[in-house]
Design brief:
Blueprint: E1 4-6, E2 19-20, E3 24-27, E4 32-36, H1 42-51, E5 57-60, E6 67-68, H2 77-88, E7 117-118, E8 127-136, E9 139-142, E10 147-150, E11 156-158, E12 164-168, E13 177-184, E14 187-195, E15 201-207, E16 215-218, E17 220-222, H3 226-234
Parallel strand pairs: 4-5, 8-15
Antiparallel strand pairs: 1-6, 1-17, 2-3, 3-4, 5-16, 7-15, 8-9, 8-12, 10-11, 10-13, 13-14
């Protein structure tokens, strides 16, 4: 049995009416915080839910659900005995350092309407500045509390009451192209990609558009028990029998 996440009863509330929180938005109707999972990968979602076992409400992109845990890798006991034998004989295996490779970025070209400018006031810094906005009844409004993060990194900030944000890119990020994600409950995630050589930069106003495709509701997280995981490890494949009467067995 594998861990599985799904929303059996999607909610019809309007996320854009939620009060922004650090993780998403607060629904006045349900009196609960709705966590925005759209910018998170499967591992991050499973980790969050394992640490928060109570049934939270969440917002997902349609292609994210249902989320299913990766199958458990079967243990090869012959390999384990071989390593144990080598250990008893006094042999040692060379250690190799491992480093996780960054995921390939989905590049989105810079919108010409963003009015990109070099920030001369902070010439020696690596900052990205801009303003998150939306249009409501053809009237421009700042998106206070919008989340701005560097894609594939746990580095981000939030927009102030006027929608302005300033994001510092640490020196540890050496990518030639940097993609930032702007998100706000009830709106589609907006991605903007810039070159490292353009830092520091002023992006100007970045418009977010209303999202009618997101799935929202109480999350059902089915988690396998310890014994079910053990059973999965030792589960053997069933033999396949031929049902063709004309087949000649040898």
């Amino acid at each position: 049995m594998k861990a599985k996440i799904h929303i059996p009863k999607p909610c019809s509330e309007k996320p854009k009416n939620f009060k922004p929180t650090s993780s998403g938005g607060f629904c006045q109707h349900c009196q609960k915080e709705v966590v925005d999972f759209r910018g998170k990968n499967k591992r991050e979602i499973l980790s969050f839910l394992s640490k928060n076992p109570s049934k939270p409400c969440g917002i997902f992109s349609p292609n994210q659900l249902p989320i299913q845990e990766s199958p458990i890798r079967k243990v090869k006991f012959q390999g384990i005995w071989a390593f144990g034998f080598l250990g008893l004989m006094g042999f040692s295996l060379p250690a190799f350092s491992q480093s996780s490779l960054p995921h390939p970025l989905e590049q989105t070209p810079i919108d010409d309407n963003l009015n990109l400018k070099t920030d001369t006031h902070s010439f020696f810094s690596r900052t990205i500045k801009g303003k998150a906005i939306s249009f409501y009844f053809n009237e421009k409004q700042p998106l206070a509390g919008a989340t701005i993060k560097i894609k594939d990194y746990s580095i981000g900030t939030t927009a102030d009451t006027d929608g302005y944000f300033e994001l510092e890119v640490p020196d540890s990020i050496t990518d030639q192209k940097i993609t930032i994600q702007l998100s706000f409950v009830g709106y589609k995630i907006r991605e903007v990609t810039i070159y490292d050589t353009q830092l520091p930069v002023q992006l100007g106003e970045i418009e977010l558009y209303e999202d009618d495709t997101a799935l929202m509701g109480e999350i059902i997280y089915i988690k396998p028990t310890f014994w079910q995981k053990i059973k999965q490890i030792f589960k053997a494949k069933k033999p396949q029998y031929c049902t063709d009467p004309n087949h000649q067995h040898t």
